[in-house]
Amino acid sequence: MSCLSNTIVTCCGTKRQFVQDCVECRWLVFNQTPAIIFQANKIVSASGTIEQSSSTSGMTKVDVIFSKGGTTIKTFTLENQQCLAFTVVGFDTITLRGNAPSSLESASGSFSLTPRYQIF
User: Fold this and answer.
1) Where is each Endospore appendages core domain found (predicted)?
2) Segment-wise mean pLDDT, segments of 10 residues, the chain, 120 residues
3) Are the CB atoms for 44 and 92 separated by under 8 Å?
């Protein structure tokens, strides 16, 4: 599903136009191998949800890492059957990383993201 809308926002007397999209997908991570689930070509602010719907017994948590230019700005941790709602400002990548040492361990889930970015 995708959606697109234009919104004029007035901030400190300056009008700024923002674009808003909607991104939804399923994800799967194995062991401690990082998996990028979202990457933008510009800095965004976004709200969304992420759910870990299932995992093998050795995968007890998955870190949700928001970064900007390779630098981590915010990390959340999900456990099995947990859902998280978030709003994060100023990132360009979301990466997932599990905590299981074995390549036989995995976790899966879904996420929905509403990124907003400024039109120049």
Assistant:
1) 10-119
2) 40 52 91 95 93 95 97 96 95 97 95 81
3) yes
Longest Cα–Cα distance in the chain? 55
Residues in the chain: 120
Would you call 5 helix, strand, or coil by DSSP? Answer: strand
Residue in this structure with the two tokens 């929905």, named with its chain if needed: 112
| pLDDT for position 117 | 74
What pTM did the predictor assign? 0.82
DSSP of 22-72: -EEEEEEEETT--EEEEEEEEEEEEEEEEEEEEE-TT---EEEEEEETTEE
As given in the structure block, the two tokens for residue 56 are 């093998």
